[in-house]
Amino acid sequence: MKTLIVELEKLLTGGTAHVGLKEATADIPFDLLGERPHGLPYSIWQLVEHIRIAQWDMLEFSIDASHKSPKWPDQYWPEETAPEDKNMWDKTLKQVDDDLKAFIELIQTKDLYAPIPQGDGQSLLRESLQIADHAAYHIAEIVVIRRLLGIWSTPKSSS
């Protein structure tokens, strides 16, 4: 079980088969966070805020029987294309990181296979895989937008 948890942690934080959110969002000029190049329907800001909302929802669902999820899809995506200010951007990145740490702590202390009582068959293992899959999908979109904006250089391998 310990091996599975270690592998889930790696999957959740990224950096094994692809960059993680920290690398994908590092050093982005603030004035480009709201750009939607080539007619794309979303900006980097909207993608990161969407990751934050969805991850928060999955964390809360996993720990709080009274949690009510936002309305899909309207409340999972911000309307504004850019954050109000740098503080808002930094706060969003911090919440994504804090919620991910809280989820990783949760999977270290709970049964990964037990059904979540307020769910309809979901388990912490399923939520772990869903958080990782969802984030990886949108992180790839962030990298594509950065490439289109000319602000991406592949991070050097840490291995």
TrEMBL record:
InterPro entries the UniProt entry points to: DinB-like, DinB/YfiT-like
Highest taxon of source: Bacteria
One Pfam match: DinB_2
Domain DinB-like intervals: 23-142
Protein name, entry field: DinB family protein
Originating organism: Pedobacter hiemivivus
Lineage: Bacteria, Pseudomonadati, Bacteroidota, Sphingobacteriia, Sphingobacteriales
